[in-house]
Amino acid sequence: MKRTPSFERLFTSPKQWNLFFIFVIFVLAVFSIRTVDTRRKIDFSIEYGLFGTRKDLSHGSLEVTLKTLVKKDGPQDPVAVPDIEEICPHAHYQAERSLVGSSNGTASAEEHIRVLQGAGSRQRIALYTGAYNHIRDGVSMTLNRMVKYLLAQGHEVLVLAPTNSHPVINHAGKLSPVPSLQIPGRGDYQLSTFLTKELKEELEEFRPTVVHIATPDPVGWQVQKWAVQHEIAIACSFHTHFTSYMSYYGLGFLENYAWDLTRKFYNQCHHTYVPSYGIADELRHHGVKHGLLLWTRGVDTDVYSPRKKCPALRQKLKIKNDEPVVLLACRLVWEKGLQVYVDVIKRLEAQGIKHKSVVAGDGPARAKMQQLLPNTIFLGAQKPEQLSCTYASSDVYIFPSRTETFGVTIAEAMASGLPVVVANASGPAMMVQHGVNGYMAPPTDSKVFFDYAKELVTDSELRQRMSKSGREIAVQTFHWSEVFNNLVNYYDVLAEAISPR
Ligand SMILES: *[C@@H]1O[C@H](CO)[C@@H](O)[C@H](O)[C@H]1NC(C)=O
Ligand SMILES: *[C@@H]1O[C@H](CO)[C@@H](O)[C@H](O)[C@H]1NC(C)=O
């Protein structure tokens, strides 16, 4: 094996320094803007000074901001949020069993082992990800589940990822922490800094057959470089659409630069796994030439299921039987299209259409949203076992985000039997069959979103029909064992073709 270059030598060329710093500044910029909370004056002035043109500032005028400054907390919930695990038997059952924070999904994985054993080779997979156990989001949950599945199938996995002192996920597999910086003001984000000499030695000792890189951050690049030097197969998975976040934050002028980086990064991966055809087209359009493969995300259709319906939950939340529940579940950040959701609910209210709006999830936009929607029930962040009851006990799912690469929550809602109204954007468009299990609306068109929402809220037969179709699509397409099986096949092909044995 070749000698690993020392840390000093890795960054000697000016170009790489350049790339690295611009990337760090960009990431810091994006995350520090996202920390903005109108209740904090300092953040506000920084934001206003630097990013005066930002969209959601225009409706958060100085007056509103000062008012919220005085009021320490957002408006109180009209209904206290119940402890779902106490009142919903399924949630309780699920919580007791959760390993990776969710289901007993291993059963289906084990079934597959029996079928597959001997079919493929054992792989040694080194996974690098920017999110593994310190934050609970779609990426970290998927990767934990993936590692759990790979280990159950007899593959070896070494995970390299940043971590912190209070991990929120009981992670799967062996984790080697990568040094990282905390993003200012965001306790839950860590930016990896360097692939240290020790980590490189660990990689060399592990002798991976496949290096899987899930995050194209500075360490992602270093891991890629390491793999190139050692002639090991590089599999990359595309999870976060950084470039589309940029135009949202008024950083559009960096977009070309970001695409250059993106192209360069993914062109050095032997495979790039994308969650939807739309993303594949977009990457191809921007010059990612080869190795694009579809790897959809899955959803645990046993956890997210109409059987999780919990009448006691509706009762506790004081929702009447004849009030269809309109649900939104995601991290509450404005770029998820929250303003559209707010508009839809306001229109439903203005027209006196009987419904109850429920929002699950937490985030910087929550306080403002609670102000705008005083009649909505905000449940806060929920664990999967609680969320599954929330979905199944709702009636319509509205999710206007257009930055999703896949839209895990849409798949979860479908599996739970909810008709959906989503933005017509690449991720969602792959899951939703317009008019069959829900509707797609132009991403920012609140009026169209409202029309579809109204149709579903007022027509229970339509809801039932779409609920059934959505569940069927979810079960057929997004079952985890299918999803990971595909991945292992990809690894096999790749390792066979490229990695030294
Ligand atoms: C979860 O556990 C229950 C009870 O043992 C079982 O009926 C169900 O099939 C399991 N689901 C999965 C995915 O293993
Ligand atoms: C979604 O967008 C695509 C491409 O812009 C368009 O062809 C399609 O008709 C749209 N679908 C719906 C339901 O609006």
TrEMBL record:
UniProt keywords, alphabetically: Glycosyltransferase, Membrane, Transferase, Transmembrane, Transmembrane helix
GO terms for MF: glycosyltransferase activity
Record-annotated membrane-spanning stretches: 17-36
Domain Glycosyltransferase subfamily 4-like N-terminal: 137-302
Coiled coil residues, start to end: none
Residue ranges of every copy of the Glycosyl transferase family domain listed in the record: 313-472
Source organism superkingdom: Eukaryota
Name used for this protein in its record: Glycosyltransferase
Organism: Chloropicon primus
Lineage, uppermost ranks: Eukaryota, Viridiplantae, Chlorophyta, Chloropicophyceae, Chloropicales
